[in-house]
Amino acid sequence: MVLPNTKVFVAFNLESLGGEYFTLDDPVRGLLDNTTYTLLGDTYVDLTSYVRSVSISRGASRELQGFQTGQANVTFNNHTRIFDPFYTAGTYYGQIVPKKRFKVTVNDFTIFTGTIDDWDLSYDVSGDSLATITCSDGFSYFSNTSLDSYTNVLELSGARVATILNRPEVNWPISARDIDAGNSLMRADTVTAETPALSYLQTVALSENANLFMDKSNLVSYEDASTIITKATTPTFADTGASTTIKYTNIQVIYGTENLYNRVQVTNVGGTTQTADDLASQTEYGISAFSLDGLLLTDDAAANQLGTKILGQYKDPELRIESVTIDVSDLDSSDQFTVLNLELTDVTRVIFTPNQIGSAIDVYAEVIGLSYEISPDTCKNTIFFRSLGTNPFILDDVDNGRLAIYDPTNYNDSNYQYNSSTALYNGVVTVGYELGA
């Protein structure tokens, strides 16, 4: 096995350091797409040789928590004061400032992109001095950007996300987006001035029961409620060394009331609270409530539908795989490729036989969090999961790949999933698929 090749880059403006740059009409320096004579401005500089450690956390660590701002911390060797902003003879003097672009790659695969928030310096009388940068992804930008007062029009959730990103006070690049159309209509509401852009975007995602996150390249990703059921299963993680699975070194399993909710209350802006109860679960375990307020759905019926959906998934205790930890250094190149390419909301399979006693627990789960701890001799990746409740559609699978005709007059939510925005507006769907008997 081979230790993965981790690299850390910070974007510096190297014009002040000398060197030659792209020059228009120059027969050598003016060639397009050349990598020797680059444009002036910030350019990614490889600082890997100074790295002591890298720590990255993206997504969420618990179900129903929602995706959080991704963060990265990198500690550099600073023996020569190269990262000291007050050392005028330093190579990068004048560039050791916040808001510089930053990224980490492993085996040339990007695992985090963001901007630097802080440079923290630690000096030791022995000379073993350190510089640590704290970085965050685009969610930090949205949380610090306030919306002006304006009125939205009736539109699908994906269009509403785009509307926010297009606002002049936000002005997020179109090239840095990956936005689904959405399945649910968002009401024509009036946004209050000084509303944080991030909180409003997250409210849209909650209203749709969708995923909103920054991907590893710092693109805004909005996946509507239908996307998860169309995703192919990616790797299978197992506690055995089978050639078709990826072995983990640690697993966290929960079974209890952490995610048990048998009363779900959903309220739209200006609407009446819609309550979905499961009396059998309440009798067995007592009442455990979960609520969502201030949603943007068009009417109470849509709010009731959302509450019923959440209730169906969380009304009973369920054994849930919370996380697995993988020592990437122990994997072969093929498995390293698979693990390093994982993204939030990817669908995986986890197999676990406690102490190799009894039958294996075999579940499908959605990736909700990714964290990395990297040093010169280790690379560990912890993956956090959300239970899917039902297994996804798998082409040619005996149990999970059977097609079926959807009859809207005889619809059973436990047996069918469907992917059509029209279903939410007029109840007409002609083809769906059966997830199993």
Mean pLDDT: 85
Give the uncertain stretches in residue-range form: 403-437
What overall form do the CA principal axes indicate?
A: globular
Count of helical segments? 7
Radius of gyration equals: 25 Å
How many domains? The number is 4
Biggest sheet layout: 14 strands, mixed
The number of distinct β-strands equals 29
Straight-line distance between termini: 43 Å
How does this model look, in words?
There is one protein chain. This protein is mostly beta strands. It has 4 domains: 6-135, no CATH class; 142-228, Phage tail protein beta-alpha-beta fold, CATH 3.55.50; 231-255 and 318-387, Elongation Factor Tu (Ef-tu), domain 3; 393-437, no CATH class. It is 14% helix and 37% strand. A hairpin with an 8-residue loop joins strand 24 and strand 25 (361-375). Helix 2 (157-166) packs antiparallel against helix 3. The longest helix has 15 residues, at 300-314. It is globular and about 70 Å long. The two termini are 43 Å apart.
Task: Sum this structure up briefly.
The protein is mostly beta strands and 437 residues long.
